[in-house]
Amino acid sequence: MSDHAPSPQELVQITYQPKGSTDWLEPVATLSKGRYCYSAAAKNLNAMDLPNPREWQPFEEDWKLPPDWQKIILNGMQARLKKFRSFRLFMDICVRCGACADKCHFYLGSGDPKNMPVLRAELMRSVYRRYFTVAGRLFGKWAGARDLTVPVLKEWFYYFYQCTECRRCSVFCPYGIDTAEITMIARELLNLVGVNVNWVMEPVANCYRVGNHLGIQPHSFVNSIEMAVDDIEDLTGIRIEVPINRNGAEVLFVMPSADYYGSPHYYTLLGYLMLFHEIGLDYTISAYAAEGGNFGLFASNEMMKQLNYKIYAEARRLGVKWLLGGECGHMWRVLNQYMDTMNGPADFLEVPVSPVTGTRFENTRSTKMVHICEFTADLIHQGNLKLDPSRNDQWRVTFHDSCNPARGMGLLEEPRAIIRSTCNQFYEMPENTIREQTFCCGSGAGLGTDENIEMRMRGALPRANAVKYVQQRHGVNMLACICAIDKATLPTAMNYWVPGVEVGGVHELLGNALVMQGEKERTTDLRSEPLKEKEKEAPVHA
Amino acid sequence: MRAVDNAEIDGIAKAWLIQVVQSFSLQGQPFLEQKKDPFRNPMGHAIQENLPIVLQEILGGMNRPRLAAALEAIVRIRAVQEAAPSKAVEFLFQLPLILREQWKAWSAEQEEVLQHTQQAALIAFDLYMACREKIFALQADEARRRTAQLERVYQRMEAEPR
Q1: Which residue of A11, A37, A226, A229 is most buried, as measured by CB atoms within 10 A?
Q2: Residues near A472 by Cβ (< 8 Å), separated by ≥ 6?
Q3: Residue A67: which residues within 8 A CB-CB, separation 6 or more?
Q4: Inter-chain residue contact B29 with A18, CB threshold 8 Å
């Protein structure tokens, strides 16, 4: 409901053209620096045999498009309208009710009307109308249709890379239009003429060639894991073993590669490894399936399928029974929603059963892949872990629901159950900023690069604003999350908007609290920071 | 200086808010002005909350910490929306025009208000610059963090005898 009911006098004065604004059908004239990502390097397109590899940048006038670029895009659009019923439906069905308009974090942080999900989608619908509907062909602009011109193409690039495919807008759409899928199609079409960003295409090329986003060779991967084993020994006095590429293990564990090269992700890795040791899990990690993340999702469905293939292939090669996956966002969108239909059926695997609790994860009957939070929450719920939450007393924690696990797979309670058992101080952010309504970090879907930082900070404003609320009210100093992109980019956003709030993984908190058999007395947390001294017990009076 | 009552401050604040919001975002204007929920409308809320504080201080005691905190909440947002400082702090230069219209006769004692506005603008420029510098520092920091553990791995490899 509107907070302001206009009077009849006000109503008759309404104009549909806000003062001083331009017609939305006119494409934006300039692309402002700090609000777009740099182009994909030719070597990365060559590595994947993608069209039109060349050196170019979005700030240059000439984007070096192929001569028949218009035809390529329109043919691509036609093919996709035929192939994806959802795309055709999303092009036709929107009634422009505006329910999504104020739900996008980029709109809330920028005020730019073309960041409203409805208007962003209209940038494509207008072209669809012009070439694929009778009304658009006959009446053009009067039917909200426009020609596909170079400025329109540039505008697509600008705004479809100002969408993190977080799907918050879709939650509010009465027709269930998934705006993320419109963005996905737009990016696929742009890829056909070689208009893509390096922060997506380089990880894609690296992943294809070596198996992970940074292109880390297998021996460096092994070194990273060995370093983690050493760090755990320093912390706990326990020398653990981490099996790599072990044939015949029960479980293959797949994580986002940032867990073994980035910070603060690394502390989450320590948490996983300590947990697996403590429960005696029969598992292996793989130097080949060493990346759960899949930037193919941000390029095209074919690319996503290609990069995802290694997960089941490695599970088959190693002869494992089921799959366990680490803390990651878009990785789970692919694993949970697309993997079984793209590269399945996983009929060579078994329905996952926890070897410790005996819980059968029926929800993963199709994919055979369990989320680490489901697995750990079950262990805690059944009383199989000894935990000392006071080891997290330095943290006053709030939880950021990462878009993909929350909206994509409904993983809402499990991480909270872990946090409640491992921390004494946990505070929720306001209701309309968490769970299904969670605000994106503003850097997902391949936008998390440094040249795009202004856009990212705008996008992070709604999330940061909610964090600030719990910081002021409860002294929150830790934003826990279960997404590798969150862990990479939210520290920057927090530092800008809410200084004093750190970012960490849920399994980092678990690693801190986990009491391991035979461990030495811990003096620091996983970050090597001294533990908060326990308050002395009150003297007992006779 | 002429005493300004609360009703008058409210009137000026309202007129200023409309102008500020107009200069921030044309089509988002009704939304920024009207939605009161701080979580549904963080930018509008920051402006609605802090603009009256800025106004009170400029018309009143010029309590610098209070003024700076209110300005900071607005400028921090503008610093990632407008790369040009002139655009980012433009809203302060809109105020004297509104006051002239509101007060009609411009007495000598009200010149003080102009001076206050200028002082506030200087504070806003400094805040804007601090925000931009912070962004550059964060970019560098993020690049380091992204491969922090990998750097440790390579350092260990170099330190170990082959």
Answers
A1: A37
A2: none
A3: none
A4: yes
Measured between beta carbons, which residues in chain B are less than 8 angstroms from residue A4?
30, 34
Torsion sign, CA atoms A125, A130, A132, A136: positive
B96, part of any domain: yes
Chain segment A321-378, per-residue pLDDT in tens: 999 999 999 999 999 999 999 999 999 999 999 999 999 999 999 999 999 999 999 9
A23-196: which CATH number, 2.30.30, 1.10.1060, 1.10.287, 2.50.20? 1.10.1060
For chain B, the domain total comes to: 1
CB of B14 less than 8 A from some CB of A: no
| Nearest chain A alpha carbon to B21 | A111
Q: Which among B27, B139, B154 is the nearest to A450, CB-wise?
A: B139
Taking an 8 Å cut-off on Cβ atoms, the answer to whether B83 and A227 are in contact is no
Q: Are A485 and A441 in contact (CB under 8 A)?
A: yes
Distance from CA of A311 to the nearest CA of B (A): 24
User: What are the Cα distances from residue A248, in Å, to A136, A295, A366, A368?
Assistant: 60, 29, 21, 16
- The answer to whether residue B58 is domain-embedded is yes
Per-residue pLDDT of A243-278, as tens digits, reads 999 999 999 999 999 999 999 999 999 999 999 999
Q: Give the chain B residue nearest A260 (alpha carbons).
A: B149
The ranges of chain A annotated as CATH 1.10.1060 are 23-196
Distance of CA A57 to the CA centre of its chain: 26
Q: Do A492 and B38 touch (CB under 8 A)?
A: no
Q: Which of A370, A449, A366, A433 is nearest to A399 (CA)?
A: A433
Instruction: Kindly report the length of chain B.
Output: 162
- CA dist list (Å): A386 to A275, A279, A281, A390, A422: 11, 11, 16, 12, 10
Closest CA to A332 of A272, A443, A411, A448: A411
Which amino acid type is present at position A446? G
| ipTM score | 0.93
Residue A168 near residue A104 (C-beta atoms within 8 A):
yes
Strands (E), A44-186: none
pLDDT recorded at residue A462: 97
Instruction: Indicate yes or no: CB of B147 within 8 angstroms of CB of A214.
Output: yes
Question: Which of A510, A517, A474 shows the shortest CA–CA distance to A392?
Answer: A510
CB contact burial A507-537 (16+ within 10 A = b; e otherwise) = bbbbbbbbebeeeeebeebbeeeebeeeeee
Per the DSSP assignment, residues forming a β-bridge with A253 are: A285, A324
A17 close contact with B: CB closer than 8 A: no
Asked if the model's pLDDT at residue B87 lies above 90, the reply is no
For A357-498, strand residue ranges (E) read 369-371, 397-399, 478-481
Write out chain B residues lying below 8 Å of A33, CB-based. Answer: 83
Preferred mutation among B29, B39, B133, B135 to probe A, highest tally of A CBs within 10 A: B39
Does the structure show a pLDDT above 70 at A541? no
B134 contacts A450? CB cut-off 8 A: no
Q: Give residue B31's domain range.
A: 6-132
Q: What is the pLDDT of residue A371?
A: 98
Q: A residues 235-264 near B, CB within 8 Å?
A: 258, 260-264
Task: With CB atoms and an 8 Å threshold, state whether B149 touches A224.
Answer: yes
In a domain, B141, yes or no: no
Q: Is B142 a domain residue?
A: no
pLDDT score recorded for residue A540: 45
